[in-house]
Structure formats: C-alpha cells, structure tokens
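WARN no homologs supplied; continuing
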Amino acid sequence: MSTVTQTNRNRDLIAGAIFIAIALAFGWAATGYPLGRALRMGPGFIPLVLAVLLVILGGTVIAAGFRLEGRTEVGGVPWKGILLTLVALGIFGYAGPTLGLVPVVFLCGAIVALASTQNGIASALAIALLLSVLSWLVFKVGLAVSLPTIGPVFGPLAHN
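OK structure emitted
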C-alpha cells in the first residue's frame, strides 16, 4: 500500500462536508414521511433526528478542521475490510430469514470483526457473541421483530 501525505485540515473539511451532504439527503427524504410527535413518532421522525445530529457532527468536524494544522500520512484503501463488510451485508440480507437472527448476526459480526487488522479469531468470535446476545435482547425481547430467533435451516432447533 502506498502512503500519501495530507493535511489534517483538508481531511477534516472533506469528512465534515460529506457528513453534512449525507445528512441533508436523508433529512430531505425523511420529510416525505409523517413525522408524528415525540410520544407517537411517525416513520420520518428518527431519520430526521439522526440527520440533524449528523449535521451537528459534520459541523463539529469542520470546525475542528479549521483549528487543526499538521500533516498526517494516509495509507492505502483497506480492500480487505471493504470486501468483508460487503460480504457480511450480503449474507445478512440473503440468509437472515433462513438462518434466523442470532446465527446471522453471529456470522456477520464475526466476518466484519475480522475485517479489522487489530482483531484475531478469538476477539472476532467474542465480538460476534456479544453482538448476537445484544441483538436478541433488543430485537426479539424488546421489539419482538418478526425475524425468527433460530431459522428453519436448523430444523428442530428452529425457534420464533
């Protein structure tokens, strides 16, 4: 991988501008849905709130870019991480209903954790286990999502 020297200011200004552009796009799209009220939120409420928070974050990053001066070395594109993340997203979308929530989150969590050069197999499995438990607690226990806990591919172990 080759490295390029880049100023911190340029990097932060570009990142902040990207955050704000994405936030404006999602905020604009969210206005096409009913917002509801704080106690009875509509489908556009959370995307709009997240868009506002992302604009604030982008503004903060831009402000930090104006305050910082210095140079940093930027490495090459992390192709392994990009590829493993895309594979995990594809697996989640394709195999989620068949594998079920807990197995697909475990599998995809392990794959994405291995995308980092700082994680080994043991830490990737620990991260995947923690993500599986948290996903089960939030989405099955808390929200009662219709995705099966253990999918039909596991036969007698299948559980809704």
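The longest strand covers residues 4-7.
OK
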